[in-house]
Specification:
- By secondary structure, the protein is an alpha/beta fold.
- It is built from 12 helices and 8 strands.
- The protein has an 8-stranded parallel barrel with strand order 1-2-3-4-5-6-7-8, surrounded by 6 helices.
- It starts with a helix and ends with a helix.
Amino acid sequence: MTSADLAHRLGIPSGPLFFPVTAYGADGSVDLDTYRAHVRQGVAAGAAAVFACCGTGEFHALTPEEFETCVRAAVEETAGRVPVVAGAGYGTALAVRYARLAEAAGADGLLAMPPYLVVAGQEGLLRHYREVAAATALPVIVYQRDNAVFTPESVVELARTEGIIGLKDGLGDLDLMQRIVSAVRTEVPGDFLYFNGLPTAEQTQLAYHAIGVPLYSSAVFCFAPEIALAFHRALIDGDRATVDRLLDGFYRPFVELRARGRGYAVSLVKAGVRMRGLDVGEVRPPLHEPGGDHVKQLAEIIERGYALLEEAQ
């Protein structure tokens, strides 16, 4: 699949982007059968793309062998119906290794996450992502967050780099993103992709959409795809009443609960998937499970979200 093909297939109004959790058994090992079921369910529910073994999928916790096995399983379960984008990260040498493992497993693209630990300058970051892009034929989306924050000038250089097709923003600086979008539009006209990659991106997507960032990740899609799809349709259709109703009654309470624990952007999602009937196991350390009271609150929030959908019918 070419960069243009991937850009086309991820385009609005195709639907939310699905970041499946990685399933573990009682002994802590990868539960591949349950993972496959999770991916199948997401694709059947209407995912626009599968982002396998990324942040919500606990990329940080997987061995290279587990990573390749899970990416291959995701590719097999999607069967070409939607593109599969795999995570890649750590230092440059390991990021290159993961990129090649993803390509060997049949992935359609890469989400290149920040380098591990070090805080690098713009020149070093550009060199890192250029080496990752050069190591594989897969189109690369660069993930801006934490220790990988770019100037508009650097994103222009990324957009000029063969194989790099987009930027996912997990920083949340709208002023910076507006300047990035403007600079790339001016200097490198074309189909460079932008993604809102903040946790529970629906909460901020009205603002991102307004500055030219139409795509967003949806962790909620993992456990409540009907809610995620209803929000997406309302956003695209300009149905502010439905958007506001879901933001006020579901997304804001979920975000406020998520903020009550470190790592809840992953562990609350896994708890939600388990509540919906698929035992994907617990998170691996150093993440931890949400407390009992928080799990109860999550159940109430999910119930309220589905009630809001029924009220709108």
